[in-house]
Amino acid sequence: MTNAEAPDAFEAAIRQLESEFTHLMGHIRRSFRENANRVSPGMLVGTYKVLSFLASDGPLTASDIAERLMLDKGHLSRMIKDLDERGLITREADPTDKRATLLSVSEAGRDRFTTARRPTREGLTVALNGFDPADIDTASSVLRALYRHRWPTADEGAGIAAAESSPPSDA
């Protein structure tokens, strides 16, 4: 059965997914806040997100981080300065562009990040215990598809909503 054959079931499944994301986002926010404080007391959640992103995808330039995380470059600059002052990142010249600087998680940053995430990793292990690894891989694939999707901006979303609520024209 396809989405076209069962639009009500598809819409119900999407609504349920949205509801589950709402609950999951609360857990993620709390986890990020706790992890940030475990890495370094007083660290802001946004700064922790940058550290987390560098830990998984680095080394990267500040421009790459700003683009991928959709952050204002000035705000990101302050977060990078904070990470640098805490000794959690390193800077090195980009070998492909001498004008750019590559940011990486320092050895101390990696150790503190790994230690801070341990409770989260243990929680995932407990929550997903009993699931088939293939099902976990499928869930990862679905999440990857969702974060790689280009979501409409607020202005674009307003246009979509207006178009969907407009009666069909007699063209």
Supply Rg.
20 Å
Question: Uncertain spans, ≥5 residues at pLDDT below 50?
Answer: 165-171
Mean pLDDT: 88
The main β sheet shows up as: 2 strands, antiparallel
Terminal residue distance: 32 Å
Helix content: 55-70%
Oligomer class? single chain
Q: Strand-and-helix sequence, N→C? A: HHHHEEHHH
Task: Give the amount of beta strand, in percent.
Answer: 5-15%
What's the number of extended β-strand segments?
2
Instruction: Provide the structure class.
Output: mainly alpha
Task: Describe the global form.
Answer: globular
- Number of H/I helices: 7
Strand order, largest beta sheet: 1-2
Structure, described:
The chain is mainly α and 171 residues long. 68% of the residues lie in helices and 9% in strands. It has a two-stranded antiparallel sheet. Helix 2 crosses helix 4. The chain is globular and about 55 Å long. 13% of the residues are buried.
Main features:
disordered C terminus, two-stranded antiparallel sheet, 68% helix
Task: Provide a compact summary of the structure.
The chain is mainly alpha-helical and about 170 residues long. It has helices at about 5-40, 45-55, 60-70, 75-85, 105-125, 135-150, 155-165; strands at about 90-95, 95-105.
Secondary-structure blueprint of this entry?
Layout: H1 7-39, H2 45-57, H3 62-69, H4 73-85, E1 89-94, E2 97-105, H5 107-127, H6 133-148, H7 154-165
Antiparallel strand pairs: 1-2
